[in-house]
Task: inverse folding
């Protein structure tokens, strides 16, 4: 073995799954490896490129994997030393679904699939690692705390907001299919299918699929008299079988059925007909799965007649979010879908209230504020809203306000039944303080922004994050104009907001330990909302207002936009954007696990890697804090 190949083998043996191979096997692989010098920003492969005959390992440098979503490039993963990527040719025949581009000058090892495949087939540990990692997009599935290289899934695709979560949704299917020998009679197989209440049976040999028969075959070939019921099943089976890998998504299965004009798919361990049978997917499975896709949920929301109906849909949204996170869909993209469904639920709640009360006396706008106003409400946390109605004459004001207070109370009551708790601070359209005419709201914002020190107990930053859920769009636009007009050259206002953003308790101690709760029911837990997420949210809002960035309320998108308008500090903003997504995912997973808001993280339940990732995500906050101190005159409220 030459010196270069020996060096490559020594490098590979440090990382999974190569650490499952012996030196002779590694040597054989290493002599076939091609070394690629990838210059900074150079693309190795991109979306829709034909599949290569090799997969790749990063020897040095960084390679970014990204997709195009909402007309912008979205980073999915950073590959560093020892990371494997570009494995799609092992498991699929369609083109690449992401782009691999060097973030800095990098050295890449290209491993020919034809050379490596025999070692996969003969080594169950290697095969299990590749299969599990490809399906779940995780690090070494057998060693969660070992960070020595990871395999990055290529099993990803972005299209548009309405379809992307459906695509990633894991498909539930029958994992106990009817399997029969090819010598069985048609009558026997038909009886087994009837007893099992299934529409298809797999003809198997040594637990490998050799054919498939469905109800359609029975109707077309038996009911028409073409074959006797005593004929062997292999005479009417379809062969070869269309096979797919485990953990396939809904849209992938749908596309494969359409492409092959079949109604059933056989699920096998590696997606080929040369591996063991794991299940069967029918058209019915797709129909059931689609009941939880965003388009269907929104249609059902529009037809809902009660809080009970809406709660059922909100519960299904939670399931959708769980499955999407499991498929490693970006939190930013999940937020887009979840916010639209949450918004539709709020809108329908207002509509149901109007149906009870009768038509409103004047035009109005129901604005969601806080997390939903920022399109960040993945968990059913408490509700925040304001209600703004059109100006009326003094003699009509009281009656009009009474109507809208009733509307607010009915709507918030419906939302409470759906699962959104009442705001503990009373920031809801049902509160007379937050249900006002347009002129009164203009005065309120003028007062908050021009004399913040006199109203420091009243002003709440969440009132600067809003999104219209129902009503007159021009009212929302009027409020946005009031905010940005008042923000111009308003040193006092930014002094107040800047100090407010820095007032949150630090997430880490001087010795880089997590600052946890010292007493109460959450003792020893980490408050990820107050100590980690809120400083980022406050910072993004502060800089967005100062840079006059309109129409962007989402924290992640605010940071992305700030990187464009303030390029000198782009790296800080982009680091904060990425940190926000990581922290949001931690909170969401905690909330889904415990069926709560996810605000308090039990650090004892996190792995060492998760703790380190959480700590690393807090690092950009220090740079953001320093930038706030540098950019704004923080004097009067310090």
Result:
């Amino acid at each position: 073995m030459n010196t270069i190949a020996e060096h490559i083998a020594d490098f590979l043996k440090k990382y999974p799954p190569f650490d499952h191979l012996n030196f002779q096997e590694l040597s054989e692989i290493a002599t076939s490896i091609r070394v690629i010098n990838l210059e900074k920003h150079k693309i190795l492969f991109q979306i829709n490129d034909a599949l290569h005959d090799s997969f790749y390992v990063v020897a040095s440098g960084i390679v970014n994997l990204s997709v195009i979503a909402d007309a912008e490039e979205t980073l999915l993963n950073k590959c560093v030393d020892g990371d494997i990527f570009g494995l799609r040719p092992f498991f699929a025949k369609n083109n690449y679904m992401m782009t691999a581009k060097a973030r800095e000058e990098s050295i890449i090892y290209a491993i020919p699939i034809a050379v490596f495949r025999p070692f996969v087939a003969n080594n169950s540990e290697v095969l299990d690692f590749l299969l599990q990692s490809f399906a779940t997009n995780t690090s070494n599935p057998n060693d969660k705390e070992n960070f020595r290289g990871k395999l990055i899934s290529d099993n990803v695709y972005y299209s548009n907001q309405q379809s992307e979560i459906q695509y990633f949704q894991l498909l539930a299917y029958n994992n106990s299919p009817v399997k029969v020998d090819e010598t069985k009679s048609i009558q026997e197989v038909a009886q087994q299918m009837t007893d099992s209440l299934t529409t298809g049976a797999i003809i198997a040999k040594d637990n490998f699929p050799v054919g498939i028969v469905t109800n359609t075959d029975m109707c077309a070939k038996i009911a028409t008299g073409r074959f006797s019921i005593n004929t062997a099943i292999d005479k009417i089976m379809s062969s070869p079988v269309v096979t797919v890998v485990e953990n396939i998504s809904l849209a992938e299965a749908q596309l494969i059925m359409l492409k092959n004009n079949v109604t059933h798919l056989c699920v096998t361990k590696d997606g080929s007909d040369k591996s063991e049978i794991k299940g069967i997917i029918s058209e019915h499975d797709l129909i059931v799965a689609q009941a939880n896709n965003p388009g269907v949920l929104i249609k059902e929301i529009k037809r809902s007649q009660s809080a009970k109906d809406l709660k059922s849909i909100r519960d299904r949204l939670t399931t959708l979010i769980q499955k999407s996170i499991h498929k490693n869909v970006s939190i930013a993209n999940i937020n887009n879908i979840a916010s639209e469904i949450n918004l539709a639920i709020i809108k329908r709640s207002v509509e149901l209230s109007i149906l009870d009360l009768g038509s409103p006396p004047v035009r109005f706008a129901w604005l969601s504020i806080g997390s939903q106003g920022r399109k960040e409400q993945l968990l059913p946390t408490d509700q925040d809203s304001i209600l703004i109605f059109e100006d009326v004459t003094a003699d009509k004001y009281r009656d009009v306000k009474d109507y809208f207070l009733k509307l607010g109370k009915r709507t918030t009551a419906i939302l409470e039944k759906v699962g959104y708790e009442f705001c503990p601070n009373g920031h809801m359209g049902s509160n007379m303080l937050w249900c006002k005419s347009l002129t009164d709201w203009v005065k309120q914002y003028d007062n908050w922004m021009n004399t913040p020190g006199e109203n420091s107990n009243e002003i709440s930053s969440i009132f600067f994050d809003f999104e219209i859920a129902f009503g007159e769009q021009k009212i929302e636009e009027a409020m946005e104009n009031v905010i940005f007009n008042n923000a111009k050259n308003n040193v006092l206002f930014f002094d107040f907001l800047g100090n407010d953003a820095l007032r949150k308790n630090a997430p880490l101690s001087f010795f880089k330990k997590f600052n946890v709760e010292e007493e109460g029911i959450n003792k020893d837990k980490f408050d990820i909302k107050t100590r980690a997420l809120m400083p980022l949210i406050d910072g993004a809002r502060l800089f967005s207002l100062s840079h006059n960035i309109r129409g962007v309320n989402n924290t992640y998108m605010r940071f992305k936009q700030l990187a464009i308008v303030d390029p000198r500090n782009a790296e800080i903003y982009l680091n904060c954007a990425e940190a926000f997504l990581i922290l949001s995912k931690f909170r969401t997973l905690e909330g889904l696990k415990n069926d709560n808001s996810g605000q308090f993280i039990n650090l004892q339940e996190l792995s060492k890697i998760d703790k380190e990732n959480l700590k690393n995500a807090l690092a950009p906050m220090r740079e953001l804090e320093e930038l706030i101190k540098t950019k704004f005159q923080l004097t009067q409220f310090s």
